[in-house]
Amino acid sequence: MRRGLLLPTLRNQIPLRFPNTNPRRILRRSSMAPPPILSLALPSETGRVLSIQSHTVQGYVGNKSAVFPLQLLGYDVDPINSVQFSNHTGYPSFRGQVLDGEQLWDLIEGLAANDLLFYTHLLTGYIGSVSFLNTILKVVERLRSINPALIYVCDPVMGDEGKLYVPQELVSVHREKVVPVASMLTPNQFEAELLTGLRITSEQDGLAACNILHAAGPPKVVITSMQIADKLLLIGSHQKKKGHPPEQFKIVIPKIPAYFTGTGDLMTALLLGWSNKYPDNLERASEIAVSSLQVICLSYSTIAFPFCFYIS
Fold first, then answer.
1. Residue 195: Cβ within 10 Å count
2. Contact (Cβ atoms closer than 8 angstroms) between residue 86 and residue 58
3. Which end of the chain, N or C, is more open, meaning fewer C-beta atoms within 10 Å of its C-beta?
4. CA–CA separation, 160 vs 158, rounded Å?
5. Residue of 76, 155, 205, 265 with catalytic role
């Protein structure tokens, strides 16, 4: 792993110059152009990400797993915490606050009031209520009214290994409303089954599930983890033109015998970051994302569990 990586800083950018105008004057601009202040600081070849995910005081899940890696890749990231908990919900207890849809929209309106809603990417993860998810859909519409080229990367966090850990009604909202507006979808095996109604027991089933999701909307689909027999796989699919056969691939993921949380959130963030750098090569972006995640997990497991061994 490289050392000495620095966060991007705006101090190395062009100095900000504020126009000599009445601050109450409403500036009219093209819907495609970022506000003049932000356009000076917009990272080249990356972008500005609005990340709406969970947050924990202790541990790394949601935004705590996603924001820093994206910043290291050169992105400007604005996080909105859908929940703020003391720790992740795998512990015996947790405390904290849950943001509702009205509060989310209030934050969006606050950004809009100051012309701060120009984003190149929207990233969403764990959403715990239907009202909040419906507000996310409003956010997508609002952001695309400002930047029609907005890329929406959705990690439809609903469950894993056959267990649903969100209300059942969220499944249909994801399937019927969220999937059609997503640019990239990153479900795990169980979530892909929920979204497609297809039981995934083979590589071909995974590829078929990707085709079903393409037909519903997103041109890029990555099933981030599939357990097939004794293999852990990633299945990716990129439909570059609607109605045309997608480019599909698989990556065999080496297993690390340790327990981790937040890896799915980190994986989706890495996929966003690298797929933007390789927009026409989802396989390459996925390879880099997987290898990055492997290095991080392996480094942690050898520090925390020095007697763990690597399973290939």
1. 24
2. yes
3. C
4. 7
5. 265
Tell me which of 3.40.1190.20, 2.60.40.1940, 3.40.30.10, 3.40.50.720 is the CATH number of domain 48-300: 3.40.1190.20
Query: What sign for the dihedral angle of Cα 238, 241, 242, 245?
Result: negative
Would you state the pLDDT for residue 165? 84
Cα–Cα distance, 174 to 213 (Å, whole number): 12
CA torsion sign for 169, 110, 153, 182 is: positive
Gyration radius (Cα) of the chain, Å = 20
Active site residue 265: yes
d(CA 111, CA 254): 42
pLDDT tens for residues 205-232?
Answer: 999 999 999 999 999 999 999 999 889 9
Integer Cα distance of 213 and 181 in angstroms: 11
The model's pTM is: 0.82
Q: Each residue of 198-208: pLDDT tens digit?
A: 999 999 999 99
